[in-house]
Design goal:
By secondary structure, the chain is of the alpha+beta class. It has helices spanning 45-52, 89-98, 124-171, and strands spanning 3-7, 13-17, 25-30, 33-38, 56-64, 74-81, 105-109, 114-120. It has a four-stranded antiparallel β-sheet, covered by helices on one side. The protein has a two-stranded antiparallel ribbon with strand order 1-2. The protein has a two-stranded antiparallel ribbon with strand order 3-4. Helix 2 crosses helix 3 (124-171).
Length: 173
């Protein structure tokens, strides 16, 4: 018997029993009877979504075929923020952690500043809708912070100008 262990972010181990991800055909012999299960090839539904995104950049797509462990094909998607939004890693990590549905597993690598999704192939549409919602919140938060900084700069300049005027007014008394 063969057992393969895979690290899935944050040093968590996922043990896969009799799993041959890269082979076209997995052969299992049970009491002299040979069972074969062909690996199904399909277009990753999330890859198109990531191609259209200006915020997130895919790092790696991996497919684990359905078999003894999983009922449906599993997708592992590793992604990061694009260079323009790299500074927003902490905010995106918080948004993802705060509102994550229980069906979706998300892990982060703080050193590489990457995210990793573990989901079933049939959950791809729900994940894209979820990521759209999260990115919408991220955009709103970025705009809010930009506006708030502009207001604070304006208030600071008004206070400085006001101090100059009061100082000038005090010289006439």
């Amino acid at each position: 018997m063969t057992s393969t262990a895979v690290l899935a972010g944050n040093d968590q181990r996922i043990n896969f029993f009799n799993l041959f991800v890269r082979s076209r055909k997995t052969t299992i012999k049970t009491r002299g009877i040979e069972l074969t299960s062909p690996k199904t090839d399909f277009q990753n539904p999330l890859s198109d979504w990531f191609d259209k995104s200006s915020f997130l950049v895919p790092v790696e797509f991996q497919t684990i075929a359905a078999g003894e462990i999983f009922k449906t094909d599993r997708l592992i998607v590793r992604f990061k923020l694009s260079d323009n939004y790299r500074d927003q890693f902490v905010m995106l990590r918080g948004l993802l952690a705060f509102s994550r549905p229980k069906e979706i597993s998300i892990s982060t690598n703080n050193f590489l500043k990457t995210f990793e999704l573990h989901l079933g192939k049939d959950q791809a549409d729900a994940v894209t809708a979820y990521l759209d919602k999260i990115l919408d919140l991220l955009i709103k938060e970025i705009k809010f912070k930009k506006s708030l900084k502009a207001v604070l700069r304006f208030e600071q300049s008004v206070k400085l100008e006001q101090a100059k005027l009061y100082k000038a007014l005090g010289t006439f008394v």
